[in-house]
Amino acid sequence: MIHVLGAQGSVSPEGRSSSFLLSPTLAIDAGNLLSPLGASCVGLSDLFLTHAHFDHIADLPFLMSSYFEQRTETLRVHALPQTIEALRIHLFNDQIWPDFSKIALRSGEMALAFEPIGYGECVMIGEIELTPVRAHHLVPTCGYLIGMQGHYALLSGDTYLNPDLIDLLNTDTRIGTLIVDVSFVSSEVKLARDSMHLTPQLLRTMLESLERDDLVIYTYHQKPEHHRLIDDELRALGFFQNGGRQLSDGETLSF
Ligand SMILES: [Zn+2]
Ligand SMILES: [Zn+2]
């Protein structure tokens, strides 16, 4: 089960940006961790990032600084090497925010550690498997193949048309669930292409080479102010015939 802490591709009164809680210690992306988790965020020991764009790291600085005295364990941030480099250079550089990889907790351990990951290399955190999958976006980005108790869901990460995703879905029939970026309405195709995201029509194009019809499809990363229009289009195109939906903040997703 995945707890969707933030499902949107931006922040507004209509919704919060991407964060998925896989267990009390494990999350993907830091778009919205602090307000839903509160003090229990100190229990997070492993955070996997899809990429360095701000809507996916917005809460990471505050995750380090809030409840600092209560944190006893290093937060391990797992990400592509290019994402780690971007965080080191542009965020945890002592100018924008302190370098928490050099600040010790009371236990003596450093507050933050970066763990590089690679496409196709599975990482086990307890019983949960996470395998980074290449996405097609403005910067190096991964989605994740998530395995829990023998069930598999594929999270696309921010992506434009991505044949690698379809190849994986065609070859690995263990995957029953696709959670895919649909950020804009189809009339915003230029904006989608320029920013390397999908629209409902682009998703239809991408899925033309899918050789199966049993996938449950969920969408996320919608611009919050357009979530109803995007949802109407997705429904009209029949993406949710197997029971999926456009994800909302705060809901749980079983697969
Ligand atoms: Zn994003
Ligand atoms: Zn992005």
CATH architecture grouping = 4-Layer Sandwich
Ligand identities:
zinc ion
Number of helices: 8
N→C terminal distance: 6 Å
Sheet bearing the most strands, described?
A: 7 strands, mixed
Helix content: 10-25%
Corresponding CATH superfamily: Ribonuclease Z/Hydroxyacylglutathione hydrolase-like
CATH class call: Alpha Beta
| Neighbour order of strands in the largest sheet | 6-5-4-3-2-1-13
Low-confidence stretches: none
Give the structural class: alpha/beta
Annotated CATH topology = Metallo-beta-lactamase, Chain A
Strand content range: 15-25%
* Total number of distinct structural domains: 1
Structural commentary:
The protein has one domain (2-247): 4-Layer Sandwich (Metallo-beta-lactamase, Chain A). It has eight helices and 13 strands. It has helices spanning 34-37, 54-57, 60-65, 81-90, 163-171, 189-195, 200-207, 227-236, and strands at residues 2-6, 19-23, 26-28, 46-48, 75-79, 112-116, 123-125, 128-134, 142-148, 151-155, 175-181, 216-220, 252-253. The model has no long low-confidence stretch (mean pLDDT 97). One zinc ion binds at residues 9, 53, 55-56, 158, 221.
